Amino acid sequence: MNVTPQAAPDALPDPLDLRAALDAALEGQSEPRRIRALSVALIAEARAGALAGIEADFARNPRAAREMVRAIASVTDSTVIAVHHVATEWLHPLNASSDTERLAVLAVGGYGRAEMAPASDVDLLFLTPWKITAWAESVVESMLYMMWDLKLKIGHSIRSIDDCLRLGEADMTIRTSLVEKRLVTGHAPLALTLRDRLWSELFERTIPEFIEAKLDERASRHARQGGQRYVLEPNVKEGKGGLRDLQTLYWIAKYIHRVDRAVELVDLGVFTRDEHLAFWQAEDFLWAVRSHLHLIAGRPVDVLSFDMQVEVARRMGYADGPARRAVEFFMQDYFRHATRVGELTRVFLTELETRHVRTAPILGRLFRRRRKMRAGFADQQGRLSYDNEAQFLADPLNILRLFEEALRTGILIHPDAMRLVAANLHLIDEKVQSDPEATRIFMDLLLKHGNPERALRRMNELGVLAAFIPEFEPVVAMMQFNHYHHYTVDEHSIQCVAALAAIERGEHPSDLPLSSEIMQAGGINRRVLYLATLLHDIGKGRPEDHSILGARIARRIAARFGFAQDDVDTVEWLVRHHLLMSDVAQKRDIADPRTLRDFAKAVKTRKRLDLLLVLTVCDIRGVGPGTWNNWKAALLRKLHQETAAALENGLEELNRDRRQAEAKRSLRHMLVAKGWDARDIRAELGRHYDSYWPGLTTRTQASFAQMLHQITPEEIRIEMRADPDRDATQAAFVLADHPGIFSRLAGALTLMGANVVDARTYTTRDGYATAVFWVQDAEGHPFAEDRLPRLRQTILRTLAGEIVAREAFATRDKPKKRNREFRFPTHITFDNEGSDIYTIIEVDTRDRPGLLYDLTRTLAANHIQIVSAVIATFGAQVVDSFYVKDMFGLKLHSAAKRDGLEKKLRAAIADGAKRAEA
């Protein structure tokens, strides 16, 4: 008979212990296929019952992940033990054993650590003393077939002890798996021999090599995952601050110190008890998240996508608050744990630098020009640290000075110093928060060294920023669940400061000529601008409008910092109105004189206009990659230019009659240059109503003149060209006017995947529609030239009735699964004050391809004339603003008419959403 399996010191309990039940069920059986089938049925039933019980316990205690992952590993052990029992006792029994007929079954990888999420793979090492024998091969084959029949995802290898040593020497992945091996069943002495030989013959002599390899892996893994801890759809396993980072610490610790559990690192002096508690809490939280992901998906899923975040938050017991959703509270906890994992990683790496050879700091010291340290600071292994702990802590302002010194010298802060700071945040009390010298140091961090984001990010991760500015603490790691912002609120604020510093360093003279010019001119108040940029979103996450609340908070902070009263007022004004310029530029028709006049009155001075422009640019650029584009740049530049002229020359400059006369004069000059005769020019200038002239560039009006020349009622003339200044394709149309033309054109364009960002439509005195749309492709750029013929063809077919847009959108309007959980309540407003001659209808709702068509079709059906449309998209949210008149050319003055129209627009949105979900 085979040698009875022996339990190893690290073996888990066998909760099912199916061996006796299997022996009873198999009594009298001899046919191998029958034995396998009976065994698999019995094991599958027991396993399913055990896993169902584990899942039920987890549903009752949805954060008790440690118990769950160990319980799943334990049930997996029972499964492997039972399968091994059948293979060795019933399928391939040995009548007489020898030293060669030995087989140990070891768990490796996460299974080796006894950490298994519900859908984790089962990684096994079948260990033999020497070359595999026919008996061992048969046992392994039978075990694998039974485990595959049990629907287990098996990763396996069959190796001798010498194989393990040879392959572990050459392959770091194999070596790492061997660090985590654990005997499950089989010949225990064989597993103990492997353990002893690995330590003595491989691990002990390759510690520096292993450390370097694991840290290189970590760096490249972070780079693949985006390099940011605050990626809004993080990978719980592989991302920065995720489980793999904690596992890397575990691997290195076990390799160096031969520890089996993280708590043993406390006795070795690597972690304090508080740091180990943070390690334990972060690990438990991350395992809970990963386990819920696996259970929801029914398969291995490690990316915490937007749709998954909502369900995981619900399962873990988070609830909506007055101003924030449950998912936002959940993700804030996630990011705070991820940040803590980063701190623990740095602490551990400190020990590696002091106790073991690492090349990077040594090379850094060799190739970096040394700068003399200020008193109280020291260069420790190429990193900035303190001379004396007691003296450092005696003056709490040294905590702020540490970050200033790091910027001044360009040296990274030593993790020992960071650890000391994190443990003594209580020293930054109210006295320090209002200390003029502390304020000077902090403002110098922002203003003097050219890269303030470096200090701010490290201060934020260590809790110093929230300690010095307590009002900042609520937004630390605060997620905005809206698909528009790529970062948490605190990281977004720091990204905005980084964008401001980059402009000031002169890095964007061609991309941002106006902002660069303002910053280089030197007349701007940098203290006000930098503080307002850092604090502009500090009011988020509360029921009150974040701009209003944030303005009050910013005022209090600026006053505490000792700013002059005028500067306090300006900081408050900038925070209160930090969305104003963006909203006007993106949601209003800035060709409308009333829009410009109202904006100029709100801004009042050129100084505030310049400050607001730069803050607005930084705010948009700080949202995330791809958010800033030439379209937004052109709108903001135009708004700044027009407003600056009005502030300088007087608001009477914004006069509709004057603008009309200037537009006609400019067009006349251009048509003369093109060779038009005087009679045709007079006809063209008299062909249009007054509303036509202020809203279009002279070039576009010249294009329309050419398209209208000698047109017949049956013709449809189309001109499409790239407008690189606006990052869009301009599509101009001239055709006989009829009701609903705007809607049909919008439908035809969006059917081809075009995103309409701006549009104007006018009617000539002789009955022709002149409509122009600015559209972008899915990437936010002009359409490629080779796509324009097909776009033109689709438009012509739609206008001819061959394509019915409403029917075509039925199959194209479905929202992406990951976007379905975003909530965007529909808001519809009617503004009769924002324009002298039009009513502005603003619709704020969830975006979908057919939305613009549905809205414009509804307006047309209710005899509403659309003169212009401005479309602003923010991720999955859209704000469509329509400048309209009724069928008599008047504003919508009747409240009853407005209410009725609102109901019909809401019905169109709801019907379209239902059609999309169907």
Radius of gyration: 34 Å
- The 3D shape can be described as globular
* Strand percent estimate: 5-15%
**Roughly how many Å apart are the termini?**
64 Å
**Largest sheet report:** 8 strands, antiparallel
Structural class: alpha+beta
* Average residue-wise pLDDT: 89
Q: Roughly what percent helix?
A: 55-70%
Helical stretch count?
39
Tell me the number of strands.
Answer: 14
Which segments are poorly predicted (pLDDT under 50) over 5 or more consecutive residues? 1-10, 357-368
Strand order of the largest sheet: 7-8-10-9-13-14-12-11
Give a brief outline of the structure.
This protein is α+β, with helices and mostly antiparallel strands and 918 residues long.
Account of the 3D structure:
This protein has 918 residues and is an alpha+beta fold. Helix content is 55%, strand content 11%. The protein contains 39 helices and 14 strands. The strands form three sheets. An eight-stranded antiparallel sheet has the order 7-8-10-9-13-14-12-11, sandwiched between helices. Strands 3-2-1-4 form a four-stranded mixed sheet. A two-stranded antiparallel sheet has the order 5-6. Strand 9 and strand 10 form a beta hairpin. Helix 1 packs antiparallel against helix 2, helix 13 packs across helix 14 and helix 25 packs parallel to helix 27. The longest helix is centred in the middle third of the chain and has 30 residues. The N terminus is likely disordered.
